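Predict structure. Chain length: 199.
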Amino acid sequence: MKITLWVAAALLAFGNVAVAAEAGDWIVRAGAYTVNPKSDNGDVVSVDNGVGLGFNFTYMFTPNWALEVLAAAPFSHDIDLASNGVKVGETQQLPPTVSLQYHFTTNGSFHPYVGAGLNYTVFFDDKAVGPLAGSALSLDDSFGLAAQIGVDFDLSNDWLLNLDLRYIEIETDATLDGAALTTAEIDPFVAGITIGRRF
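Prediction complete.
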């Protein structure tokens, strides 16, 4: 609720600012991201939501075409039994994603865009807890496609507010004490709200 009110206040305060992207511009953004895996993403265990700090770096080849790299601080996720929701593990992951973007030409302060690219998710610091404490839990890394929609809103000539929604294909094989446990098709929606600056 507080974030929504802050966004609304920013839009009202800076609604008359309009800045067009130019070839050669860099845009650097940082803010909050939430990773929301699809429901029932595993037959035996499932991976829960995670929230963390994210960064992205965009280079404008032209006023319309750009390349973006998404990076983040590690996201932490709980791992639950699919049958009853009991927590049995924890993991952390990093989801670096590279996307080719198309930025639509507009005359106002809103600058929408779409993108598509590739994601490589690294899982690490896997831990078994609760009923599985003492066992060795491991999640494999994942490689998949990613798609996004987003919008930049000009706050000034250099500063902007960004809202971003992504879908990422993430699938990981979980093993317990070296034995195959399950394949989790996480396939999350990743939503972000960031503050950016053009250079």
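Summary: Residues 1-5, 8-14 have pLDDT under 50 and may be disordered.
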